[in-house]
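FORM 7B: Structural annotation worksheet

SECTION A. Query
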Amino acid sequence: SADLGMVALVLRTAVALALAAGAAATTGVDVSESVSESEWECLMTPGEQGSVEFAIPRVYRSSGSVDPYGAATITAARSAGVPYVDGDIFP
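SECTION B. Predicted structure
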């Protein structure tokens, strides 16, 4: 019937949109420990998750102090070629 045809069309459209959204997903990481350049390079190697497109290392701790590894982790990510790098200021 016409109602079943419309339901099928809506379901096919929903599945197509869901698949398209998944294909456009971006992979990134939020880290609170020191990550070396070689570790970032490993994360940049495409695997099942895809290549890392962004990194957000912690640069300020909830204890009210600067994270001693934050700047070095940002430098390492940029050196490894991570396209987008920012810092997380933990409240």
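SECTION C. Observations
The chain has a mean pLDDT of 82. Residues 2-23 form the longest helix (22 residues).

SECTION D. Sign-off
Analyst initials: ____
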